Amino acid sequence: MSTKNELLEKVQATIDAQQGKLEKLKETALDESNEAIDDIKEAISSLEPKLDQAIEKAKEIADAADDKWDDLKDSLEAGWDEAGNSLEEGWDNLTDSIKNMFS
User: Fold this and answer.
1) CB of 16 closer than 8 Å to CB of 81
2) pTM of the model
3) Which residue from 88, 95, 100, 98 is spatially nearest to 37, judged by alpha carbons?
4) Long-range contacts of 41-44 (CB under 8 A, 24+ apart)
């Protein structure tokens, strides 16, 4: 079982890592062919809402009153796991697509 702060740290670390990957991908898109750019832009567009969802879930966790934490913890952790997994899955699909484009 994790505390609210531990869960927030985990959430923020994931969000920061994904935002970094997304920014790197945006920079890479500038150097690629038009076809690759279109595919990368499409993939970025599908990832951004997932990242926004993860950020919203982090806000829910942060806004949970400390006296309600025990009641909400399981629900918030499950919600974060779902949002985080969705983000990771989207990222994995994107990187697979990019690898296939260049192989």
Assistant:
1) no
2) 0.57
3) 98
4) 43/93, 43/94, 43/97, 43/98, 44/94
Residue at 24: amino acid letter: K
Amino acid (1-letter code) at residue 11: V
Q: Token pair for residue 92?
A: 């994995």
Residue closest to 48 by CA, chosen among 38, 59, 40: 40
Give the pLDDT confidence of 26-64 residue by residue, as tens digits.
Answer: 776 666 566 666 777 777 787 788 788 888 878 887 887
- How far is residue 80 from each of residues 20, 52, 55, measured CA to CA in Å? 19, 12, 10
Nearest-angstrom CA–CA distance, 1 and 64: 16
Instruction: Tell me the two tokens of residue 64.
Output: 């949970």
Q: Which amino acid, one-letter code, is at 93?
A: N
Measure the CA–CA gap between 16 and 72, rounded to whole angstroms. 24
